[in-house]
Amino acid sequence: MGINHIAVQQSIPHGPSYAGNAFHPGDVEGAAMASPDIAFEIVHGRIAFTEETAWMLDRYPNITVNVETLNVIIANCPPTFAALVLGMMHVGGEAMLDRLFRGTGTMQYHPWIYLEDLVAFEFPPDVLDNAGLVAVIPQITKLMDSDATRRASTDSTSKR
Question: Where exactly are the structural domains of the chain?
Fold first, then answer.
C-alpha cells in the first residue's frame, strides 16, 4: 500500500459526556502489533493514559508519541510536565525519550514561549526522587531536536 506512517489523534477527554474508549490508546496497540512495519504516532500524547502509553512504548518499537499537548503544561506547570514525561519513561527508561517528539499544535499563540520553556527545563529534584532517579536527565533536549519529519522518515524496523 505504500503507507509507512499513521498518526492517530488521541486527544484529551473533557467534560461529562460519555465517549467510551474513544480516547484510550489501545486501538493503536492493536494496529502496531498487527503492522510492525508501519510507524504509529499517538498525537496529543499523554495527559490521560500515561501508564498505558508507557507500556506500549516499551512493547512496540513502531509507536511514537507526539507530546503536542504538553506545551501548555510546560509553560504553566513544569513539575506536572516532568511527572508526565517521567511517567512515559517509567517502563522503558531514558530510551523512551527517543520515541517522544514535540509538536506545537498552536493556533492560539506563538510556539516560541513553549520552546523557551523546553530549553530552560530541568527536572525538579523532588520529582526525580519520587521517580527513583538521582540525576537530571539531560536527554530532555532530544525533544528540541526531534520533529515529525524525522520520525516519519525513520524505518520502523531499524528501531527494533
Answer: 5-159
